[in-house]
Amino acid sequence: MENKAELTPLITVLAQLRKEGVKLDFKVTEEGMLSTMDDKQKFGPDEVRIVNFYRFEGESNPDDMAILYVLETTSGAKGTISDAYGTYSDETIETFMKKVQDLGKNLDTRI
């Protein structure tokens, strides 16, 4: 029997990031703030930077694309947020991420 994690690159990347200390999962609130899933910490775009990102394409359908952002906040919190990529992206997440400082990777280009 094959290991499901090996078949799902997103899961593999998340597992590796967890080992590297990237422990939190983030969301973007309706107010346009980055928040921990428990809503205990909130950050504006000026308090967040994109450390890295990974893009994934569906095996059976190239339109099934996702992007996983690795983020670090000014408080030192490290975590991830994912979104559909392209047509199906979440406008709230996309708007927030365009305001965040990235570290040299152009988010509008395809890899």
TrEMBL record:
<protein>
    <recommendedName>
        <fullName>Phosphoribosylpyrophosphate synthetase</fullName>
    </recommendedName>
</protein>
